[in-house]
């Protein structure tokens, strides 16, 4: 069942919304694109895509947040997905919540990932009152790292880790970890004084 009561998030050009049945085919096409999946172990089959979407829906049901569908009104009804998810493996930085994104190629290069991820961060820090958000990718994925840096996230050499779900020697096993604390996000967005006040989202 894809219909949910997920509250949408909105930016100047983007909407993060609940999943619909018609999103499945577009998502499957995105996940089958070798260029989109370049920094993942392999493209997904249609069946694997359906399982992934059901896991996303289950994540919303369990945690109250997850990966929203990214829509660009008037441009793309399905531009990918963006949002928040619990990191699903054990590492030196877990438990943790990750901000992540995956966009169709036609949406690349327009700043949509950054704008949508900012919506997700606002929800994480203002509505959910989370203390820190992480993001992770392989060193070769410069495009995603650029988004993380535009979001104000910081990577340290000491945080580099080997992804436990990939076998030793796999070319994608080494991952960079980027972090952003609520305090630093508030300081970037509202000024240094915001470190010492509680600001809540009233939208």
Quickly describe the structure.
This protein is of the alpha+beta class and 203 residues long. It has helices at 23-31, 46-63, 112-127, 142-150, 182-190, and strands at 9-10, 15-17, 67-72, 76-86, 97-103, 132-137, 154-155, 161-162, 174-181.
Q: What is the element layout, followed by pairings?
A:
Blueprint: E1 9-10, E2 15-17, H1 23-31, H2 46-63, E3 67-72, E4 76-86, E5 97-103, H3 112-127, E6 132-137, H4 142-150, E7 154-155, E8 161-162, E9 174-181, H5 182-190
Antiparallel strand pairs: 1-2, 2-3, 3-4, 4-5, 6-9, 7-9, 8-9
Helix pairs in contact: 1-2
What gross morphology would you assign? globular
* Helix and strand run: EEHHEEEHEHEEEH
| Major sheet | 5 strands, antiparallel
List low-confidence stretches: 193-203
Euclidean distance between termini CA atoms: 28 Å
Rg calculated over all Cα atoms: 17 Å
How many beta strands in the DSSP annotation?
9
Please give the order of strands in the largest beta sheet. Answer: 1-2-3-4-5
Question: Helices and strands: which structural class?
Answer: alpha+beta
Percentage of helical residues? 25-40%
**Number of H- or I-type helical stretches:** 5
Tell me what portion of residues adopts beta-strand conformation.
15-25%
């Amino acid at each position: 069942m894809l219909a949910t009561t997920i509250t949408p998030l909105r930016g100047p050009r983007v909407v993060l919304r609940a999943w619909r049945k018609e999103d499945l085919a577009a998502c499957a096409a995105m996940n089958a694109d070798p260029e989109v999946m370049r920094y993942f172990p392999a493209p997904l089959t249609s069946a694997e895509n359906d399982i992934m979407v059901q896991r996303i829906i289950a994540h919303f049901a369990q945690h109250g947040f997850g990966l929203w569908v990214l829509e660009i009104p008037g441009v793309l009804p399905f531009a990918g997905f963006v949002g928040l998810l619990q990191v699903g493996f054990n590492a030196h930085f877990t438990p943790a919540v990750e901000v992540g994104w995956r966009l169709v190629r036609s949406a690349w290069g327009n700043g949509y990932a950054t704008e949508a991820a900012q919506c997700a961060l606002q929800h994480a820090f203002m509505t959910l009152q989370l203390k820190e958000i992480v993001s992770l990718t392989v060193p070769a994925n410069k495009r995603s790292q650029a988004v993380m840096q535009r979001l104000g996230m910081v990577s340290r050499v000491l945080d580099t880790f080997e992804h436990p779900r990939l076998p030793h020697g796999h070319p994608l096993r080494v991952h960079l970890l980027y972090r952003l604390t609520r305090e630093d996000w508030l300081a970037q967005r509202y000024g240094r004084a915001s470190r010492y006040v509680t600001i809540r989202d009233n939208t």
